[in-house]
Each structure stands twice: as structure tokens, then as C-alpha cells.
Amino acid sequence: MGLLNMASGSSLWRGYEYFSNNNVLSYERISESEYKALVLGSKKDPYHVYIDIKHPKKSTCDCPFAEDNTKVCKHKVALFFCVFPEEAQAYIDEIEEYEAEEEQRYQEHYQEVERYVKSLSKKELQIALINVLTDRDDEEYDLW
């Protein structure tokens, strides 16, 4: 399993922000699959980060979140995106695609609701509004 797959959504997003904001102060390739870096965190002092692409569970960071080495923190993600900027772009492309799909679904739902509301009579609208305002969606309130 890859490093990004092991990260939470929050760590991915914050790591991308750290990458975009140039919080990776310096990094060095140690071997074919290993990198180390200094990554500026929310505190003044940078964190020491080590990632191993072949063995992501061996990756470390001395930040409080990743202290036990089992969690993928935003600093590890930022370093990963520095080493593989095409992965950062793929991550953002995926988010933008998802947001566009969500917007499309919202627009379709809105149009469906709008058509339904316009099809209702005044009495039906009043009943529906009273039911919504009184949380009585399981019963119809009779106006008359």
C-alpha cells in the first residue's frame, strides 16, 4: 500500500497545502526509494521527515501527530508531493473532478426539486411547508 493510500483525507489536503506553500525547506534523495527532508510545520522549527516509497510504514516524522510512526502526517505527504509533483497534480485534478461532479449532481437535484415544487397546488405547497417547519414528514397536516 502506498504512502498516500495510508494517509487520511485531512493529512492529504494539509500536505498538499504545505507542498503548495513551499513548507518543504529542503529534501535529499537517500536511495532509489528513500528521501529525507526538513518540513516547516505550524511551529517555528522544522520537522525531520523521512519517507520510504517501497516501505511506507518505515516512513517517519518527528511531529507530534506521527510520533508513533504509524500515521501518515501532512509533513510526509508534503515531502512526497515535492518528490513527485505529478502526484500532487493528479491529486488536485481528482479533487476538482469530484467537485465538478458534485456541482452537477446538486444542479440536477435542484432542477428536480424546482420542477416538483412548481407542479404542486397552493394547498399542497402549504401542507408541505407546514410539515417541513413542524418536522412532520411522516404525517400530512390537513389545512382544512
Give a structural overview.
This protein has 144 residues and is α+β, with helices and mostly antiparallel strands. 51% of the residues lie in helices and 15% in strands. The chain is built from 5 helices and 4 strands. Strands 1-2-3-4 form a 4-stranded antiparallel sheet, with helices on one face. Helix 3 (74-83) crosses helix 4 (85-119). The protein is elongated and about 75 Å long.
Mean pLDDT: 90
Number of helices: 5
Q: Could you tell me the radius of gyration in angstroms? A: 25 Å
Inertia-based shape: elongated
- Uncertain runs: none
Quick one: biggest sheet? 4 strands, antiparallel
H/E series: HHEEEEHHH
Beta-strand segment tally: 4
Order of strands in the sheet with most strands: 1-2-3-4
Helicity level: 40-55%
* CA distance, first residue to last residue: 63 Å
Computed structural class:
alpha+beta
Q: In percent terms, what proportion of residues is strand?
A: 15-25%
Topology:
Elements: H1 3-6, H2 9-20, E1 24-29, E2 34-40, E3 46-52, E4 60-61, H3 74-83, H4 85-119, H5 122-133
Antiparallel strand pairs: 1-2, 2-3, 3-4
Helix pairs in contact: 2-3, 3-4
